[in-house]
Amino acid sequence: MRYSQLFPKTEKLDPKGAATINHKLLVRGGYIDQLMTGSWTLLPLGWRVIEKINKVVREELNSIGCEEMLMPLMHPKEIWNETGRWDSAAEVMYQLKDSREKEFALSFTHEEIVMDLIRKHVKSYKDLPVTIYHFSTKFRNEARPQGGILRGREFLMKDLYSAHATEEGMIEFYERVSDAYIRIFERLGFEVYITEAAGGVFTERRTREFQVVAEAGEDTIYVKPGTREAFNKEVFSGQESEYEKKRSIEVGNIFPFGAGKYAEKMGGYFTDKDGERKLVHFASYGIGISRLLGTLVEVNHDERGIVWPEIAAPFKVHLVDLNGTGEEIYKQLTEAGVEVLWDETDRGAGEKFADADLLGMPVRLVVSEKTGEKVEWKYRNKEEKELLTKTEAVKRLG
Fold first, then answer.
1. Averaged in consecutive runs of 10 residues, what is the pLDDT profile of the chain (398 residues)?
2. Are 263 and 282 in contact (CB under 8 A)?
3. Among 69, 18, 58, 56, which Cα is nearest to 40's?
4. pLDDT digit string (tens) for 67-108?
5. In whole angstroms, what is the distance from residue 390 CA to residue 95 CA?
6. How far apart are CA 394 and CA 398, in angstroms?
7. Which domains, ranges and CATH numbers included, belong to the chain?
8. Rounded Cα distance, 136 and 382, in Å
9. Which of 41, 322, 333, 393 could be cross-linked to 368 through a Cys-Cys bond (beta carbons 3.0 to 4.6 Å apart)?
10. Are 43 and 8 in contact (CB under 8 A)?
11. Using omega within 30 degrees of 0 as the cis cutoff, is the peptide bond preceding 15 cis?
12. Residue 292, C-beta contacts closer than 8 angstroms, at least 6 positions apart
């Protein structure tokens, strides 16, 4: 990618009213743009990061047998009435009418929609388990959207749902998803705390959250010293002196519903091997995809800008061309399958280096009169520089 073709370009000043690091750096770097409070455009650079995140999530969920699909975002009132959530979740749900006075909701989650699929298509125990997920937009009427892209009224989520013949089968898969979530977050470079929490508008049962420690977080968790186990403030009942109190960002959660609420109220039945009619055992599992974009920046930055982990970086290399000789290595890297952002513009060196630091690609390469036939190699998270031949640089990156 040529920098001259990149849309949009970087900004020098922090956006007005920005209080969090991710808000400042993602807007200045041209990763996101705010349409209105709680509503963000994922610009080309930001979308590249989202695609990298989705790839990791997709790989880990597919590895445990999950199937990807896509569900509608506008739902009829009637399906939400079946569980009573048209009224009980009205505070967070966007509800609307069409020109014929028919009422709808914009999705803030998809439990009812999945249970409708299950009651239509699951007849026998032989049809179970069902483990299906999608990446989609969610809408929640947040009273105070804040923290940049961490909490909005419209956001991207991966939600997975599973249905099982027995409680034991549900719990076994619940733990498999929990392990997959840990792998996802560790691959993205996070240290997550597995946190016991309340179920909110989803369930009366206790649930499991995955929290990342960050000052920008709006959650408070109490961590057992020396472990990754924690309690959300809302369910904590221990002695504060025996736990470490931390600010954190919730990046994922998993909900074990069992046979109550959704299956019972919506008629999610199947016939077991003895011919008896029974309710499916149901669970759901969420990851805030666009929130992960903000969280990555909150925990990976310095005073100059973003420091992307390689697995999520929009480009692996930022090629800073100071004398117009970068095309050769740009072509070599591209042909080797390396994702490169080539700053071939005629701007000054200081401005180009500042942009490279702000945008945060893992490796910066410089070609200039000083480097001659070689290139200067520098990792974004290190100060050391070294001169390599172009062949050595391409080989190391490829």
1. 98 96 98 97 98 98 98 98 97 97 97 98 98 98 92 97 98 98 98 89 80 96 96 93 96 95 96 98 98 98 98 98 98 98 98 98 98 98 98 96
2. yes
3. 18
4. 999 999 999 999 999 999 999 999 999 999 999 999 999 999
5. 58
6. 6
7. 3-302 (3.30.930.10), 315-397 (3.40.50.800)
8. 37
9. 322
10. yes
11. no
12. 53, 188, 251
Contact present, 120 and 127 (Cβ < 8 Å):
no
Q: Which pair of tokens denotes residue 324? A: 């117009």
How distant, in Å, are the alpha carbons of 45, 158, 300 from that of 308?
12, 22, 6
